From TrEMBL:
<dbReference type="InterPro" id="IPR001031">
    <property type="entry name" value="Thioesterase"/>
</dbReference>
<dbReference type="Pfam" id="PF00975">
    <property type="entry name" value="Thioesterase"/>
</dbReference>
<dbReference type="InterPro" id="IPR020802">
    <property type="entry name" value="TesA-like"/>
</dbReference>
<protein>
    <submittedName>
        <fullName>Thioesterase</fullName>
    </submittedName>
</protein>
<feature type="domain" description="Thioesterase TesA-like">
    <location>
        <begin position="25"/>
        <end position="246"/>
    </location>
</feature>
<dbReference type="InterPro" id="IPR029058">
    <property type="entry name" value="AB_hydrolase_fold"/>
</dbReference>
<dbReference type="GO" id="GO:0016787">
    <property type="term" value="F:hydrolase activity"/>
</dbReference>
<dbReference type="InterPro" id="IPR012223">
    <property type="entry name" value="TEII"/>
</dbReference>
<comment type="similarity">
    <text>Belongs to the thioesterase family.</text>
</comment>
<keyword id="KW-0378">Hydrolase</keyword>
<dbReference type="GO" id="GO:0008610">
    <property type="term" value="P:lipid biosynthetic process"/>
</dbReference>
Length: 252
């Protein structure tokens, strides 16, 4: 590769590294954007080059039509990643992003591209279904859920203009997650590392442990103190874990 980013609205590379021995693709949570992983990119460079997925309908893609299915997000992200598979590729997804990352891993495997591993953070396994309807609530109900998960500064939610910017993408993402149904397929062969907060209202330890059913490779569950957005307070520990696992499992 010549250092010039392949043309794609879907991929953000905050820090280039010609010496990186692997890449980590990061998939944001519902309502989230690529910039959420800027700190991760800075911390992992230069050994690992971070690519952050930018879903449509937010930040510099705010004017684009939203996608309200995990499958559609995975299809587009998978296509955008095609030029980046010249180095070992790990996948990290938080919450909704874990489902998108899982679906992308399955698509890559279908092409014979085996990821270094999948980091599934803050999300129950694809085969664990809950009947949820946040996307059907009124605006106050959606914002109440966001407050409950403590993932956004409450002062931002008090700003009417910011709420108007956040809500369409957030509701669409919740629709994608809550209408997702796992379709049985060949299990992954790459390692799956599940990460979860010990007080996460959206993922129990048993639901996180069920990720083991989706790979024939290594499985590991790591529990951190905190809720659904445990990684905000545990960023250094999460980065250390990611660095360690990528270093141990990537292939030349």
């Amino acid at each position: 590769m010549n250092g010039t980013d392949p043309t794609s609205d879907w991929i953000r590379r905050f820090h280039r590294s010609a010496s990186a021995t692997s890449r980590l693709v990061c998939f944001p949570h519902a309502g989230g954007s690529a910039s959420y992983f800027h700190g991760v990119s800075k911390s992992l460079t230069p050994d690992t080059e971070v690519l952050a997925v930018q879903y449509p309908g937010r930040q510099d893609r705010r004017g684009e039509p939203l996608l309200d299915s995990v499958g559609a997000m995975a299809d587009a992200a998978y296509e955008a990643l095609a030029p980046w598979t010249d180095r070992p590729l790990g996948l990290f997804g938080h919450s909704m992003g874990a489902l998108v990352a899982f679906e992308v891993a399955a698509r890559l495997a279908g092409d014979g591209v085996v990821p270094v591993g999948l980091f599934a953070s803050g999300r129950r396994a694809p085969s664990c279904y809950r009947d949820e309807n946040v996307h059907l609530r009124d605006d106050a109900g959606v914002m109440a859920e966001l407050n409950r998960l403590d993932g956004t500064d409450s002062r931002l939610l008090d700003d009417a203009e910011l709420r108007e910017m956040i809500l369409p993408a957030l509701r669409s993402d919740y629709r994608a997650v809550e209408t997702y149904h796992y379709t049985p397929r060949p299990t992954l062969v790459c390692p799956v590392w599940a990460l979860v907060g010990d007080d996460d209202p959206r993922t129990t330890l048993d639901e996180a442990r069920a990720w083991s059913e989706h790979t024939t490779g290594l499985f590991e569950l790591t529990v951190f103190p905190g809720g659904h957005f445990y990684l905000n307070a545990q960023a250094d520990a999460v980065v250390d874990l990611v660095r360690s696992r990528l270093s141990a499992h990537r292939t030349p």
